[in-house]
Amino acid sequence: MKIRVLLPGLCRGTLLLMISLHLAGMPALADDAKGQAVARLAASHDPEIPIAIGCVVIKQAGLKAIRAMLADRGLARGLGPDWNPAAPEWQAAEGQLAELVDDLIAVRLEDPAWFREGLGGAAADVLNAEEADEIATHFATEGGG
Prior knowledge:
Elements: H1 3-43, H2 48-76, H3 88-108, H4 113-126, H5 129-139
Helix pairs in contact: 1-4, 1-5, 2-3
């Protein structure tokens, strides 16, 4: 069999294989492009205000929970009306427990990674690669930043 007879078929087969492999990789490339655009979009937002708001909300919720727990424990132990937020023992206990809330805030909220992951996930749910890229590009401009 002559090679010239096989060559057109091999070329067509090779070309089809290359096109198939290329198209099979396209979703991965699109996902990668979308991931990069969403990451740029998330990085373009300053997390300072959401982090500050989160810290205040968590601190407030923590203090409310601490005060409710101290009131319940005082009631259960029969400490009477002198067991209240003005009592020095209450204030000492509240201060120690509030430090735990502050530690939680420092570990969980002050690192902006949670903000960027959350914003990136929300953006990825509603934007395609082109939309995320367009918005990220806008925020990188003087007027958008």
